[in-house]
Specification:
The protein is an alpha/beta fold and about 675 residues long. It has 4 domains: about 55 residues, Orthogonal Bundle (DNA polymerase, domain 1), CATH 1.10.150; about 100 residues, OB fold (Dihydrolipoamide Acetyltransferase, E2P); about 190 residues, P-loop containing nucleotide triphosphate hydrolases (Rossmann fold), CATH 3.40.50.300; about 160 residues, P-loop containing nucleotide triphosphate hydrolases (Rossmann fold). The protein is built from 22 helices and 23 strands. Strands 2, 3, 4, 5, 6, 7, 8 and 9 form an 8-stranded mixed β-sheet that branches. A 7-stranded parallel β-sheet has the order 13-14-12-15-16-11-17, sandwiched between helices. Helix 7 packs across helix 22, helix 9 runs parallel beside helix 10 and helix 18 packs across helix 20. The longest helix has 30 residues. The two termini are about 40 Å apart. The structure holds adenosine-5'-diphosphate and magnesium ion. Magnesium ion (MG) binds next to helix 10.
Length: about 675
């Protein structure tokens, strides 16, 4: 007997060379092989008469060989073998290309089961290269449901089927990890049946049940892992913060905190005094004032003698946080510093020395904070400000720079609790569901190209009234992606042709950090009337005098992203507007964009986005923190995810630490999943 953990080279016929091909599919061990599941199936169970064959639709039929196979050599590299077969309904000509040996095995007068598709023409039907088996052989390529596996060049499906069944003969299937009572409650197949049925189902229904079981299992292991991580975290001790007085902090603010901010601060204060590490997500719409909640946490860390680090996804945002928090912390007698990649080596060294010496209370920065060169004297709080841009690995890399580190994550995109768990692992959530007073609704309009002259007139009007405008384009350069308005060219057109008398600035992600900052700061000071930009301005940048945002080719963006962008205006006292342009007339696209015009509520928009695009797209390409599931898909298996989460939480609470074989097998599986890095590693 072989072990699940054995390399696949223990299988006869799998040498180093084959193993390399399998490795390309992530298959190294027998377990990997047994857990290499089909991406679909071909139902070859039904046997039809020849006369019922339909062109181009492969099917099984049973027929007798009517002529001895005859091979003609057409030219170098091309042999054709022909043979005629028949059943009681019709005759059929079979043609095999370069399969002289295979086709030659057909015996004149004998009956076989064939599987193939006829190609029709007016003379009659012909069937190129069917597969076949004799009636007394076990069903392998006919009379069964054939699994279709993900492959890579050099491997074929038949070979994969053989190798997997060899592995399953030599070694036991992965053990059962789902407790029997749960299996019954959720109507889940036992492991042994599921592995059999996923690779060799007796019916399509059975295949579907096996798949559901494996999806459930995957989510269950993941969720159980989160529950265990939480239990473990709760046993980790950190010195509770003793000083929780915030009156000096409140007094230093230029405004009163909103009720929602106060509630979030109360939540995190409770976390910081509990004596176990905080693990909290602050969700709040754009403009809800998350930064001040983070500032309160950093203040508490500082007065309790700990350093805090705030990590932002872009330099612009880090710089903006720095310039808004520094005056506040100055007033409070605390020391702030900025650390970004585009600072000179000397500047960075200075900041790092001060951090290591404990001379800085709050450092704000980008990925530069993660660098090995960055060390803290006494890091006690890590805050990440993100639009789901940091992977868990990065959050924990920063946390590991201290011994007793609390974690606070800020996100502007409201996501359902189930998905928040996938993205962020085991987090408590505070929601800022209230905007600071005096916020303007941003009136949003969707227009077509025919409105161009009016858009331009509207931009001019805002500028004449002393305000500024953002124009957002989906691409940086022309032709970068076909048919998308490019910021660089559009800025030129606006500056030279449309508004030669206005001051037009250009900002995009390909500029150097310092250059971006200079442009943004200059725009914030009112030195340009119109800022043409890409989504680099999506995150956080604050220009209260900007009252209009025009988003070109708005259909190129996700709804939540558009909402983020729109949040850049309406930050001052004046009435603000957002204009979405599109060439796309598809009804779904228009419906999506109209949803944005209808509401300013980020939570509702996120829900809509989720409904319209599914969570896969919702997270877009920024899935860095998402676990890699083998069978499960976050986009389509949400319901199973919810069931598995519920089941896992209850079971871990009750039995997680028990010494049963099931609990041990589950813990082992969790260990494997988490070894590959997953969000629960916070
Ligand atoms: P976000 O949640 O989008 O990160 P910010 O923290 O950037 O929002 O806050 C948006 C703006 O609102 C900032 O200019 C900030 O100074 C201001 N602000 C935050 N809290 C309040 C408040 N309680 N009252 C008035 N203005 C506030
Ligand atoms: Mg923010």
């Amino acid at each position: 007997m072989a072990q699940l953990s054995d390399p696949i080279t223990v299988l006869p016929g799998v040498g180093e060379k084959r193993a390399k091909l399998y490795a390309q599919l992530g298959i190294y061990t027998l377990r990997d092989l047994i857990c290499h599941f089909p991406r679909g199936y071909e139902d070859r169970t039904r046997i039809v008469p020849i006369s019922a064959l339909i062109p181009d639709q492969p099917a099984c039929f049973r027929a007798t060989v009517m002529t001895p196979p005859r091979t003609s050599h057409i030219r170098k590299g091309l042999d054709i073998t022909k043979v005629q077969v028949a059943d009681s309904s019709a005759r059929l000509n079979l043609t095999f290309f370069n399969q002289k040996f295979t086709a030659g095995q057909l015996v004149y007068g004998k009956e076989y089961i064939f599987y193939g598709a006829v190609t029709g023409d007016f003379i009659g039907y012909n069937m190129p290269s069917p597969v076949f088996e004799s009636l007394d052989s076990p069903p392998v390529v006919t009379r069964r449901i054939l699994p279709i596996y993900p492959l890579t060049a050099g491997l074929n499906n038949a070979g994969m089927i053989r190798t997997i069944s060899l592995a399953r003969e030599l070694c036991p299937d992965p053990p059962e990890i789902l407790p029997e009572d749960l299996r019954r409650e959720y109507r889940i197949l036992p492991a042994a049946r599921a592995y059999q049925a996923i690779h060799a189902p007796a019916s399509m229904e059975e295949a579907a049940m096996a798949k559901r079981r494996l999806i459930f299992e995957e989510f269950f292991v993941f969720s159980a892992g989160l529950a265990l991580a939480r239990a473990t975290r709760e046993t980790r001790q950190v010195a509770p913060y003793e000083k929780v007085e915030l009156s000096a902090f409140r007094a230093a603010l230029p405004f009163r905190l909103t009720g929602a901010q106060e509630r979030a601060i109360r939540d995190l204060t409770r976390d910081l005094t509990r004596g176990i590490p905080m693990n909290r997500l602050i969700q709040g719409d754009v403009g809800s004032g998350k930064t001040m909640v983070a500032a309160a946490a950093a203040y508490l860390a500082a007065v309790n003698g700990r350093q805090a680090a705030l990590m932002a996804p872009t330099e612009i945002l880090a710089e903006q946080h720095f310039s808004s928090l520094r005056p506040l912390f100055d007033r409070l007698g605390l020391r702030t510093a900025l650390l970004t990649g585009s600072m000179t080596p000397k500047e960075k060294r200075g900041v790092r020395e001060a951090l290591a010496a404990g001379e800085t209370d709050l450092v704000i920065g980008t990925h530069a904070l993660l660098s090995e060169a960055t060390a803290f004297q006494n890091l006690g709080l890590v805050i990440t400000d993100e639009q789901h841009r940091f992977g868990v690995a990065q959050r924990s890399a920063l946390s590991e720079k201290g011994r007793e580190v609390h974690l606070l994550v800020m996100s502007a995109t409201p996501i359902p609790r189930t998905l928040a768990l996938l993205m962020y692992g085991d987090l408590e959530v505070s929601v800022l569901d209230e905007l600071p007073p005096g916020r303007q609704q941003v009136d949003t309009f969707l227009v077509g190209e025919s409105m161009r002259a009016r858009i331009n007139a509207f931009i001019r009007k805002q500028v004449q009234e002393g305000h500024q405008c953002f124009v957002v384009c989906p691409a940086v350069e022309e032709n970068q992606e076909l048919g998308m308005k490019a910021a660089t060219a559009w800025a030129q057109t606006l500056g030279q042709t449309v508004f030669p008398d206005l001051r037009i600035a250009l900002l995009h992600g390909q500029l150097k950090g310092a250059e971006k900052e200079r442009i943004m700061a200059s725009f914030a000071r009112g030195e340009a009337d119109v800022l043409v930009a890409t989504t680099v301005i999506e995150v956080g940048v604050d220009v209260p005098n900007a009252t209009l945002m025009v988003i070109e080719d708005a259909d190129r963006f996700g709804l939540s992203q558009l909402h983020q962008l729109r949040g850049r205006v309406g930050r001052g006292g004046a009435k603000s507007y957002c204009i979405l342009t599109t060439h796309n007339r598809a009804p779904e696209t228009l419906a999506r964009l109209k949803a944005l015009c209808a509401t300013n509520d980020g939570f509702r928009i996120a829900e809509e986005d989720l409904k319209l695009r599914g969570p896969g797209d919702f997270f877009g390409s920024r899935q860095s923190g998402m676990p890699a599931f083998r069978v499960a898909s976050v986009s389509t298996d949400l319901e199973t995810l919810q069931q598995a989460q519920q089941a896992a939480a209850g079971w871990i609470d009750a039995h997680g630490q028990e010494d049963t074989p099931e609990a041990a097998a589950l813990r082992e599986r969790i260990g494997e999943l988490f070894a590959h890095g997953s969000p629960a590693m916070n």
